[in-house]
Amino acid sequence: MTPEPSRDLAAFLDAWELFQAPVIAGTIAGALVGLLGVYVVLRRMVFLAGALSQTAGLGVALAFYGRIRLGLDGLLGSPTLGAALATTTTALLLVGRRAQQGTQRDSLLGLAWLAGAAGTLVVGTRIVQEVQDIQSILFGSAVVVLDDDLVRVIGLALPLGLLHLWWQRGFVQAAFDADGARVRGLPVWLLDVTLIGSIALSISLCTRVLGALPVFAFSVLPAMAALRVSPNIERALVVAAGVGAACGAGGYYLAWRFDLPVGAAQTLLAVAFVALATAVERGALRRAG
Question: Measured in whole angstroms, how far is the alpha carbon of residue 281 from the centre of its chain?
Answer without folding.
Answer: 25
